[in-house]
Design brief:
Layout: E1 6-9, E2 17-20, E3 36-40, H1 44-55, H2 60-63, E4 67-70, H3 78-83, E5 87-88, H4 94-107, H5 118-133, E6 140-141, E7 149-150, H6 163-175, E8 179-189, E9 198-203, E10 212-220, E11 225-228, E12 233-234, E13 237-238, E14 254-255, E15 259-263, E16 269-270, E17 274-279, E18 285-287, E19 292-301, H7 303-311, H8 329-346, E20 350-359, H9 361-367, H10 369-385, E21 391-395, E22 399-404, H11 409-430, E23 436-445, H12 451-459
Parallel strand pairs: 2-3, 3-4, 4-5
Antiparallel strand pairs: 1-2, 6-7, 8-19, 9-17, 10-11, 10-14, 10-15, 12-13, 15-16, 17-18, 20-22, 20-23, 21-22
Helix pairs in contact: 4-5, 5-7
The chain binds zinc ion (ZN) (3 copies).
One zinc ion binds next to loops.
């Protein structure tokens, strides 16, 4: 068999677009040099394997690579299609260049991120894929998955045994407000293995056997007799065993109010069988009420998600407790970014500052709950001394952040200095025996600033 050949498709756009039809012995590392790829679907398995290899990579230039499927036939495996950037029926670069440019232009905004925990690396991948594609994370029906659905990019990292982890990372994405869910389906999954491949069956309440036969109950209105249908059989007719009258019209002189079950294993007769959910995957017999109820959603990137896709998860920020009137650090970041954008568009200058309460861990621990009270008192002081238009946040349990829109840095500098002196006086009388310091910092928000740099300056002691 001939080895893989990548044909460069000629174009006037100064883009390297490769066409691949033979996948044998292809080294995916060489693909990172391309701006986009078109994969021939004639060798379906080869095409799908290559797509999966690229999308499951942790290298940005591979998992974000614009990849199209070339096929005249419209019958494309839905999973392959969901991993691609579209299906084309021509090898003209004109047909894909718009999408390639769009993805590439978004890709240049992405900051380099140090990879940390596996969960964060996977979440980063998902957020970046959605951001560069301007698309939602949409589940595709997949009978090979134990949950019956496949999430592009994400599912590549979770085998059938790790599905609880997949749900965990998605729930986390909702909780941290990176992703906004929209309902797609509701699943009932095995409590042991998260499989949705389940047989629901009626069982005998006495012996648990599923070997049951059902029969109609008949209620004869005329004499009020109720009994199983076989008691009424008389040749081709139904005759009441109690009053011997012939039954004529259902709904008029008799009715079938319910069915009864006969257990062929123990001969027990009953009306309420026990429902059991047998898992084909791990063979556990689940009581139905023990099944895991899971919603399947499609997901949209939120502004916070977009921000995180571009700049990463940043340094570890601790938010042990919240202060009234102070917004979360994530929201603060969005405001700061917005102010940088506004400075670009309006040319106006705004300023941001921080006040860090520095105290040794030992002293802080010695204060116990008093520390939290102290942080609250300083927060109140800051709230009263600032404008209502100022935006306040509190991070790392010791850093007060402030954005002052349309305000000169000198004004904020003076303000923070005043606060520092007043709080210092207040603390001196209250905190005898503790050593502490308050450090004010001010930065100018102007069009040439990067918001991550600004944050780093503000929160670094
Ligand atoms: Zn009767
Ligand atoms: Zn039985
Ligand atoms: Zn199971």
């Amino acid at each position: 068999m001939a080895g893989a050949i990548i044909t460069k498709l000629p174009n006037n756009y100064n883009r390297e677009v490769g066409y691949i039809s033979h996948y044998h012995e292809l080294d995916i590392r060489q693909l990172a040099l391309y701006d986009g790829l078109i994969l021939d679907y004639t060798d379906q398995q080869g095409c799908v394997n290559l797509l999966r290899q690229c999308r499951s990579s942790f290298i940005g230039t591979l998992y974000l690579l614009p990849i199209f499927i070339y096929s005249i036939d419209k019958n494309i495996d839905p999973i392959a299609e969901s991993l691609s950037d579209g299906v084309v029926s021509s090898l003209q670069v004109e047909g894909v260049i718009g999408k390639i440019d769009k993805i590439r232009n978004k890709q240049v905004n992405l900051a380099a991120i140090d990879s940390v925990s596996p969960d964060i690396r996977i979440m980063t991948k998902v957020l970046r894929f959605l951001y560069t594609r301007e698309t939602r994370l949409t589940p595709v029906v997949n009978p090979n998955s134990n949950i019956g659905y496949f999430y592009p990019i994400l599912s590549e990292h979770y085998k059938n045994g790790d599905l609880s982890e997949l749900f965990k990372i998605l729930d986390d994405g909702i909780q941290k407000e990176y992703l906004r869910p929209r309902f797609v389906d509701r699943l009932h999954l095995c409590s042991n293995c998260y499989s949705g491949f389940i047989n629901f069956r009626e069982t005998c309440p006495k012996c648990n056997s599923a070997d049951l036969v059902t029969e109609n109950l008949i209620h004869h209105f005329v004499c009020a007799y109720v009994g199983p249908e076989h008691d009424f059989h008389s040749g081709d007719y139904l005759v009441c065993p109690k009053c011997n009258r012939m039954l004529r019209h259902i709904g008029v002189d008799y009715d079938k109010p319910s069915i009864i079950y006969n257990c062929r294993n123990c001969s027990h007769i009953f009306q309420e069988p026990v429902m059991e959910a047998f898992c084909f995957n791990c063979q556990k017999k689940n009581p139905v009420e023990a099944l895991i109820d899971k919603q399947i959603y499609s997901y949209e990137l939120t502004p916070i998600g977009e921000e995180t896709a571009i700049n990463g998860f940043g340094r570890e920020i601790r938010e042990e407790f919240e202060l009234p009137g102070f917004i979360t650090f994530t929201t603060f970041n969005i405001f700061l970014k917005y102010e940088v954008e506004r400075a670009k568009n309006s040319g106006r200058i705004s300023s941001a500052g921080s006040l860090i309460l520095s105290m040794s861990d030992e002293d802080r621990n010695r204060m116990g709950p008093g520390y939290r009270k102290l942080a609250g008192e300083i927060a109140d002081f800051i709230k009263n001394a600032t404008f209502s238009t100022d935006i306040l946040s509190f991070v790392n349990n010791n850093t007060y952040l402030i954005i002052s829109p349309d305000s000169e840095p000198t004004r904020l500098q003076n303000l923070l200095e005043n606060i520092r002196q007043s709080v210092h006086k207040l603390l001196l009388s209250n905190l005898v025996g503790y050593s502490f310091n308050l450090v004010p910092k001010v930065v100018t928000i102007s069009s040439d600033k990067n918001h991550s740099d600004l944050i780093n300056q503000l929160i670094t002691p």
